[in-house]
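Exercise 7b. Backbone tokens:
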């Protein structure tokens, strides 16, 4: 069983022989990238405005089991990518260990910093490509939010668009850090979407801010990893795709800024609601005392 899974996740000819080319990789052009992101934004805005005109009220529209099915699918896809890239990275380390010994490179350094001249081919780039495609499925949550809540979030549009764009850069420029970034992201997403499926089917929620806390952990890990890439780039003579990495860092910084802004506003609103509830309870208690 384990050998079969290992074969289909890291040793299959389609995985080993993968190339980021027009003939093997759907959606690998800059034209496709920008058109798809623009179509996603325009469709989201159109759907939001259409529903506001069609339904004057803001009561949520039922979607049935669709969000639960999407969450379960994304959890399974994320876990498959996590297992696949983990096994593929181990296979690459096994097959190229002799090369790393020659240049005094450790497996952890390779996870952070690809050697100069690395091409987007082979096992780990196959799973990077699958991760890139899965980002389009991830955008469906925007449409669920618009339909159910009649709410269009700038942060959600920006975050999903940037995730697609960064995933494309990883492949196009064989960018360093992508293996570790995919391992961290898919492991967190497996848990997050599993939790969303859990709550979508009506099971009890244990932590209201569970998803936000997972995103904070992921963003914190990304910041630490980016610092590691920067150090290795200057200490070991360069990392592959460093130009794309710089742009990636700027975009990650923007995502972090918008998320922290959203997180602070969420906590401020929660404190206001809590304070209002305490004031109401105090007023009720005082009226009871007067009646007594």
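Sequence design result:
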């Amino acid at each position: 069983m384990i050998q079969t899974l290992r074969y289909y996740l890291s040793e299959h000819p389609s995985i080993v022989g993968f190339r980021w080319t027009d003939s093997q990789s759907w959606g690998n052009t800059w034209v496709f990238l920008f058109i798809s992101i623009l179509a996603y934004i325009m469709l989201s805005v159109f759907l939001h405005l259409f529903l506001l005109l069609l339904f004057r009220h803001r009561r949520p529209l039922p979607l049935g089991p669709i969000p639960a099915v999407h969450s379960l699918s994304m959890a399974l896809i994320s876990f498959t990518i996590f297992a696949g890239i983990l096994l593929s990275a181990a296979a690459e380390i096994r097959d190229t260990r002799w090369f790393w010994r020659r240049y005094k490179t450790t497996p952890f350094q390779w996870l952070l910093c690809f050697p100069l001249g690395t091409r987007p081919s082979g096992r780990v780039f196959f799973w990077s490509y699958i991760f890139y495609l899965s980002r389009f499925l991830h955008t469906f949550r925007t449409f669920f939010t618009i339909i159910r809540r009649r709410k269009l979030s700038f942060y959600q549009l920006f975050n999903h668009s940037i995730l697609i764009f960064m995933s494309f850069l990883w492949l196009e420029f064989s960018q360093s850090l992508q293996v570790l970034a995919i391992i961290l992201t898919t492991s967190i997403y497996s848990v997050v979407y599993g939790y969303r499926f859990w709550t979508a089917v009506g099971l009890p929620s244990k932590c209201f801010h569970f998803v936000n806390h997972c995103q904070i952990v992921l963003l914190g890990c990304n910041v630490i990893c980016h610092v590691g890439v920067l150090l290795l780039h200057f200490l070991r003579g360069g990392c592959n795709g460093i130009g794309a990495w710089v742009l990636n860092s700027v975009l990650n910084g923007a995502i972090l800024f918008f998320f922290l802004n959203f997180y602070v506003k969420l906590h401020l609103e929660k404190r206001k609601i809590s304070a209002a509830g305490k004031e109401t309870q105090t007023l009720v208690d005082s009226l009871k005392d007067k009646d007594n």
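Instructor comment: DSSP finds twelve helices and no strands in the chain. Residues 281-292 have pLDDT under 50 and may be disordered.
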